[in-house]
Design brief:
With about 140 residues, the protein is an alpha+beta fold. It has a single domain, classed as Alpha-Beta Complex (Aspartate Aminotransferase, domain 1), CATH 3.90.1150. Helix content is about 35%, strand content about 20%. A hairpin with a 3-residue loop joins strand 2 and strand 3. Helix 1 runs antiparallel to helix 2 and helix 2 packs across helix 3. The longest helix has 20 residues.
Length: about 140
């Protein structure tokens, strides 16, 4: 499989595809699984890529619906889903395991070998979408 680099003409979804391809391994698999779950939970989700800069030319995958739902960052030891308003969301599945001390965001770090609880993650994504929609109305 040939590696490719992002160009300015690529759509956000294509940029995310390229990022997943470049990551490869367990991190690419985790980001692919997360992306699939997000799309299942919110069929109207819009994929964007933000914060592109020389040190991170591929940017950060972002999923939005009436505002940012979450981002999908990748690090050596984790794929991090950061929920823009995570501190305001109910998390009955106890998925949040990072950035727990902030007043706004919350994150889920997925490490190699972790199993993603798809049902709990879908519920959390739907909760984030409902929060965004309520905030947009108010």
């Amino acid at each position: 499989m040939a590696k490719r680099s992002a160009t300015k003409e690529e759509s956000p979804s294509q940029l995310i595809d390229a990022k997943i391809e470049k990551l490869g391994g367990w991190r690419g698999e985790a980001l692919t699984a997360i992306r699939k779950i997000i799309k299942q939970a919110c069929p109207d989700v819009v994929e964007t890529v933000k914060w592109r800069k020389p040190s991170n030319p591929m940017g950060v995958p972002v999923w939005e619906c009436a505002g940012i739902i979450c981002t999908g960052e990748s690090y050596k030891s984790a794929v991090k889903m950061t929920f823009a308003h995570g501190a305001r969301l109910k998390d009955p599945g106890k998925l949040f395991n990072a950035s727990l001390d902030g007043n706004v965001r919350r994150a889920i770090d997925v490490h190699e070998g972790d199993k993603i609880d798809a049902a709990a993650l879908k519920a959390l994504i739907r909760e984030a979408v409902a929060f965004n929609k309520a905030k947009a109305k108010g």
